[in-house]
Amino acid sequence: PCFLLMGILFLPSPSLTAEPISARQPALRPHVHKQPEKTTRVRTVLNEKQLHTLRTCYAANPRPDALMKEQLVEMTGLSPRVIRVWFQNKRCKDKKRSIMMKQLQQQQPNDKTVSGFSFCPCVALIPKEKGLMYVQP
Amino acid sequence: PCFLLMGILFLPSPSLTAEPISARQPALRPHVHKQPEKTTRVRTVLNEKQLHTLRTCYAANPRPDALMKEQLVEMTGLSPRVIRVWFQNKRCKDKKRSIMMKQLQQQQPNDKTVSGFSFCPCVALIPKEKGLMYVQP
DNA sequence: GCCTAATCAGGTGTAAACAA
DNA sequence: TTGTTTACACCTGATTAGGC
């Protein structure tokens, strides 16, 4: 259960070799056109194995062609649509992140002041509004 | 898959849990409607075997993904919700405990090392006595 | 009373939808 | 296609309450 694709060696996932239960068929709505009432958006939850496959492929080639995507469909059991969207989002996020990084680096090479927080992409660390700061008593 | 960069802790993507929608609680009135209706919450009592299974899994991976949780559901006979809550509580307790430990260790050697505060106040700062002091930033 | 399962409040990450 | 927004899955941390 390990094979080669585009020069990438895919090993079986360490956690699970057998994939028993949830081969997810997202069961998407056939009527894509908007019904203002039904706002139920079906969110596919990717498991670790699928993510690993996608990420490995992405690392080798962030813009897979149709053939490649087809292979991914087969490997992950995801729909082509999910594959496509995932790569779209991934490219976008990556780009955004790299831009952020560059800003961060050139902004303060080794400044340790609190002001550096304003550029911290991890929002959790920034009190948004009336958040609280933790200090030692 | 979690790393530190420029003092920012990047956590791995959240583990995935497929939770049936039916498990969502109807969000009963949090307010003054003190209706005499029974608010008895059902408390699951875990037996030794279930605890052992959960603890073993936790030791190997405190953040199981959807597949793993599904297996746990099968092995323990517990609902996905109970599994999820157990892991949440366990992580929280563990974290709290480890923080206590670290703070105990650091208590004697030195004081007033505010290093790290400017980078990560949420994580780095540890209460000296018992509990955190909150101040407005 | 202690331990902890369940709940709550608030936040994060991201798949999906949408806009350009 | 890229860039932005939205909705949802799931998190943490604090709190509440059930069993022993």
Describe the structure.
The structure is a homodimer of 137-residue chains. Chain A has 137 residues and is mainly α. Chain A has 3 helices and 3 strands. The first copy, chain A, has a two-stranded antiparallel sheet. Residues 1-38 and 111-137 of chain A have low confidence and may be disordered. Chain A binds chain B through residues 15-16, 19, 21-22, 45-49, 51, 104, 112-114, 116-117, 120-122, 124-125, 127, 130-137, and chain B through 6, 8-10, 13, 15-18, 65-68, 70, 112, 114, 118-122, 125-129, 132-137. Chains A, B: One of its GO terms (biological process) is positive regulation of transcription by RNA polymerase II. Chains A, B: Keywords: DNA-binding, Homeobox, LIM domain, Metal-binding, Nucleus, Repeat, Signal, Zinc. Chains A, B: Its main location: nucleus. Chains A, B: It is found in: Nucleus.
